[in-house]
Amino acid sequence: MDREPEVLEREQAGAAGVSRRTFLKAGVAAGGGLMLAFSLWPLARRELAEGAGAPESGPPFEPNAFIRIGTDGKVTFVVPRVEMGQGTYTALPVLLAEELGTALDSVVLEHAPADKRYDNPALGFQVTGGSTSIRSAWEPMRRAGAAARIMLVAAAARAWQVDPAACEAGGGAVTHAASGRRLGYGELATRAAREPVPQEVPLKPAGAFRLIGTAQRRLDSPDKVTGRAVYGIDTRLPGMKVAAILPCPVLGGRLSAVDDAPALAVPGVRQVVRLDDAVAVVADHTGAARKGLAALAPRWDGGANAAYSTQEMVADLAAASASEGAVARKVGDAPAAMASAARVVQAVYEQPFLAHACMEPINCTVHVRADGCELWLGTQVPGRAQEAAMQVTGLPAEKVLVHNQFLGGGFGRRLDVDYVTQAVRVGQQVKSPVKVVWSREEDTRHSTFRPYHYNRIGAALDKDGRPVAWHHRVTASSVLARWMPSRFTNNVDGDAIRDAAGPYDFPNILVQYVRREPAAGITTGFWRGVGHTQNAFVVESFLDELAHAAGQDPVAYRLALLGKHPRARHVLQMAAEKAGWGRKLPARSGLGVAATFCFGSYAAQVTEVDVDASGQVQVKRIVTVMDCGRAISPDTVIAQMQGGAVFGLTAALFGRISIKDGRVEQGNFDSYRILRINETPVLETHLVESAEEPGGVGEVSTVMIAPSLMNAIFAATGRRLRSLPVDPARLA
Fold this sequence. Notes:
This protein has three domains: 6-222, Aldehyde oxidase/xanthine dehydrogenase, molybdopterin binding domain (Aldehyde Oxidoreductase, domain 4, 2-Layer Sandwich), CATH 3.30.365; 232-303 and 362-437, Aldehyde Oxidoreductase, domain 4 (2-Layer Sandwich); 311-353 and 449-730, Aldehyde oxidase/xanthine dehydrogenase, molybdopterin binding domain (Aldehyde Oxidoreductase, domain 4, 2-Layer Sandwich). The protein has a seven-stranded mixed sheet. The chain is built from 18 helices and 30 strands.
């Protein structure tokens, strides 16, 4: 089949190629017990020493994650990914516990520190993102658990002087049925650590799974429900101060001057800290810091952006989109097919800047000393946070400690470390630990925005209305060129063109990319679903246009283009069936459909809307069908489908960051709307049972909701909206 862009291919490679003989090592844990280390890296990138007795002169061992089984039987798992609500702190331990033969609630979790041993094999450094956590750990995590189980059985068999084949592991113990003897994992742990690591590690057949594919209570839920969970913003340290910060309102501007006196007059305020582009007030507590900041009247130099606006940026993008750009994907000869086609349909689609609006605003607690620096925060990239502090302080890695916490939402915002750099610069001027907290307004106005995409798209249709050519030109800034330059190749941002032709069977395809950056000082970044969210909106909306231009049903039209993708066809047919596609609806009501193949998963979605006479849209129901391969924790998959749909629906209905005079016009949730409870539709999710390897989950439904919504609005009103968010005035 014609695959997605190369960047996704690399992501989906995961841990394929890991040697089953060389990715494990065992040892005795401090205080006794079994410590099992394993790597998720492909063998080509890591060469591990074999066996427990490997010579000291062998290759360096740099594991990705550690398992410790204590003498009390508790299994401690240092989790190589962060938990930001997506369920990795349950799904990864499920894989481990399944093969280890222990109860899930016997697993104790620890946040991984900043350390290259915890690098993500799919992306090449320590990061949680791109829906890669399960895909990269599916087999290695199970093999690690299975290896530990085999070693525990071997230790028990040696103690009893019996054949290991006569012993069985499960329920946190090894038993010998013939004699009725039983030893718990805690009793065996230290002895098991001295057993050789098995060279061949058979895995359970799917029919023997106890945990995988079943409903599990999330391991992080008890602490979150009781308030014991610690997020970055919850950090409390002896002698800690709190800093409120105000960056220059003009993006890219600088601080000219500020009088400290009004802030210092506020009880509890200790000092005013000046940065090149911001001012911070340090106080004993948040209230004093906020009051002190409000008392200041800083003078700013807006610089070149003082008159910059969204209109200027869009005009620049439109002009740039007229150029040919770099070829990102080419199948056949699309221009020639367009020139000779019976009919050509063309359109322009636009998507605005978006902020992330995480529930937990940006924050970072730092303690900068002459001999070291410590950070307390929630981040998707602990290693990059460490590097940011190293760059500011000049300290070596071993002197910079990162204490990662739970994340109150990430959505891609916490893939960047600008706020870490800022906090460390503040911390350099404060003698005590200091927690730097952004207000909701600054969190919105100084986010790393999802890029503004300007899309020129066209298709050639034959006499039967079937597409014979597809031409999509994406004009946007490049996140990858800044965030991961090695992935920006041949002037193409692999993320910006994801899904630019979808999984559909077009005989001629031309996808082009034109890089155009906004004004200096405006930073674009990843947003939940990344490039898929932008191009799926264009592709699925435009396919709907083509179906109506051909006088054909939108579902049938798509099915005819998915002959090479049986899983895609299945989810699309199932979504249409579950939603009651084709049933008669009242006036100004409609159903819209969208489908996707992203992050290794197939999904389809049908959205039902009512549009009143004033153009207000009420989303009544969203039906999602998901084929993510084998679902590790089905309840978590369903929750992610629901949460992703609400997140994406919020953006499609209300999301827009606009700039006037160099300043972001939106601030709190009054001007940057979030979907409210009474506006939330019925969310219906159906999972396809599958024996395929797991695909990604956390971002998939966010990808589909905008096009399925817009297609439903067209079905209800006959009016095609080609830009986001929904404008009710155009529907009245």
